Amino acid sequence: ELNDLQKNKRYWLRSKVFGSQTFGEVQSFYYDKDLAYKLRDSLSFSTSILNHLKRQNNSVMFDTLEIKFIATSAGFLDGRTANILLNNQNLIPDNTLRGHHVCLFDDSSYNFKGYYYFDLFGGGTNTTTAYINFLDTLSSKYLVAIAVCDEGSTSSVPLKNQIKSLGSIYIDSLLFRSSWAIIGKKGAAPGSVPEGFTLPGQGRVDIDTTIYQRYNSGTLTTSTIGPVGYWDSLKVEQNLKSQTTIRFKPIVINPDGVADTLSYLNLSNNMADLSFINAKTYPTMKLLAEFNSETGNISPSLSSLSVEYKTAPELGLNYQTVRADKDTIFNGDTTKDTIFNGDSLNLVFAVMNAGESWAISCEVIVQLIKPNNSIDTLMKSIVSIAPFSGKKFELQYISGTYTGNGDFAFNILVDPENKIAELFKDNNIYRVPFVVRADTITSISQSLLEVKVDGKEIFDGDFVSPTPQMEISLHYPSWFPVSDTSAIRLSLNGKQLYANQLGEISRDTINREMAISYNTFLEDGEYLFRIHAQNVNGIMETQPAYEVVFSVMNEANIIDVYNYPNPFKNNTHFTFRLTQKPDELKIKIFTVAGRLIREIAVPSVNLSTDFNKIEWDGRDQDGDLVANGVYIYKVIMKKSDETKEVTQKLSVVR
Predict the structure, then answer these.
(1) Cβ distance 236 to 220 under 8 Å?
(2) Could you say which of 15, 99, 116, 402 is the most buried, measured as most Cβ atoms within 10 Å of its Cβ?
(3) Taking a C-beta distance cutoff of 8 angstroms, is the pair 422, 227 a contact?
């Protein structure tokens, strides 16, 4: 039982669907009833960015810097080279020059301070004297690395004594064209420092030493906290020793993702007030902790960081809060309500707020999605919803012949413009499908007619080709005089089409089906196609049994480019209309920085004039899910030598 969990402990869990043998990913959480965000153990601290800090024993403290020195010497017979490296970076400009190569380093910070070069063989007495003076006046605060290349032997006793002052015990063994290197310090005891030599032809010398130094400053940056509805306070558990500090700064982030760093927080009893930060202006933040010590030997430590806040509004709806009126006429389809044209359908739903803060000025929209995917807005409302409560909405929709018949849907949108900061947005859309059917038959109606242009149904506003092939199918009732060619009348833009203008007319008297074909050439423009028919009383109806308004455009073009849903979580569909079928069509998806992440090529055979829908699974060209954010997409079509493209935006929110 969750109520039996112990506070201040980390728990792990995994889950599976009932009846499945496979578990999902392991999840972990730190249980503390009182706090909303908490860094308490090594796992939770691992979500933060540490700079010069490390996690140790469930606390954060200064990390240790590793400094490695390497010196290499090779005499004439052993390679003629010299290297002095600090953390793998060679500090000798030309390592093939003959003589002594000298590098100085600060003995506290170990930063490189300078490079010097002495060619004893070629420089004679003057170079030897300069070398002696250089070592004699050298401060004891330097670490000194010397490596010989080619030839570096000397008979000068004063010079040897100066080198011995660095801790050398092998300088007297350095013969003509031998190899020798040392990493020493002025005043070091003889033999206490890294040093090496070899005789000519016995190989080069490699010496090294590693120094470990604790940092005396560092930073911790938390992961993003929020979105929230109200900022309350910061609480920390820290161990501050003498001459050490940890100071905290909020990095507040507005809804557009722009960050602003505020002043240091004033802590009292390890607590700081955060209520001065406006959660509406800054719904998310990070915390920056700056660690400092006057001496590198002592480190402050942070064992806990927690932020108290009230959660942001969390709006949503699902199958439990949405229903269509079940008193509507039902016609055997258990997944959709079915109504007849002219009937009403009642939609009742509630938008819930599961957050701890008010959802202020929340926009709620109900759309009607028609069979041709056109959209009407049925309701638009602005409401405010209290924490842990809901707002009920009721809507009555009356179907009509002007909207047609077929598969419809109510589309409910909550906060479609994302003005309210929420953690989850994928439950802000809900779709309720239903079917509208024609009424009982006393006349020829659209439900008995099927009109296809170039092999597909068309709807008001659709584009058709300039040379359409129209096929009209009538499933006529028994009383219809099918042999009478005047019983059905076709017209285009108000002009009747006579039988001699039509193509083949076929009649299947067994299945009571009549088929009419009509082929023509149309210029650019809008056309109204109507079918009138006699009713059961033999009278030609004044209202058309079928009518559709379509357009013709001889120029290839792309219009009405959208993707739905947008924003989306898992997948979306690109929808667009084509005035003509192209030879080639591609959809390219880019980051806002312009990097192409996916290209979808759609063969011409899979496209049609007017409406098209192409699915994208939200993955990039490598098959990986793309990250949350805004992306740019282009729909590009080619027809003969002409190219058209349309650019739009989409958002991914998981």
Answers:
(1) no
(2) 99
(3) yes
Q: Are 220 and 261 in contact (CB under 8 A)?
A: no
Q: By the 8 A CB rule, do 597 and 591 touch?
A: yes
CA distance 452 to 475: 14
- Burial (CB count within 10 angstroms: exposed 0-12, middle 13-18, buried 19+), residue 126: exposed
Sequence-distant (6+) residues with CB within 8 A of 109 are none
Closest CA to 167 of 146, 144, 184, 145: 184
- Specify the 3-state DSSP secondary structure of 43: helix
* Rounded distance between C-alpha atoms, residue 464 and residue 225, angstroms: 53
pTM: 0.50
Strand pairing report for 462-464 and 546-552: parallel
* Integer Cα distance of 192 and 189 in angstroms: 6
Give 293-316 pLDDT, tens digit per residue.
987 678 999 999 999 998 889 999
497 pairs with which residues across the strands? 490
Cα angle 641, 644, 647; round to 5 = 155
pLDDT digits (tens, 9 = 90+) for 497-509: 998 899 889 988 7
Residue among 43, 54, 48 at smallest CA distance from 221: 48
Compute the distance between CA of residue 95 and CA of residue 79 in angstroms, rounded to an integer.
Answer: 11
Residue 654 confidence (pLDDT): 87
How buried is 300 (Cβ within 10 angstroms: 0-12 exposed, 13-18 middle, 19+ buried)? buried
Task: Return d(Cα 574, Cα 637) in angstroms, integer.
Answer: 14
Read off the DSSP letter of residue 7: T
Question: CA nearest 542: which of 529, 530, 525, 553?
Answer: 530
Dig out the tokens for 113 from the structure. Answer: 């301070």
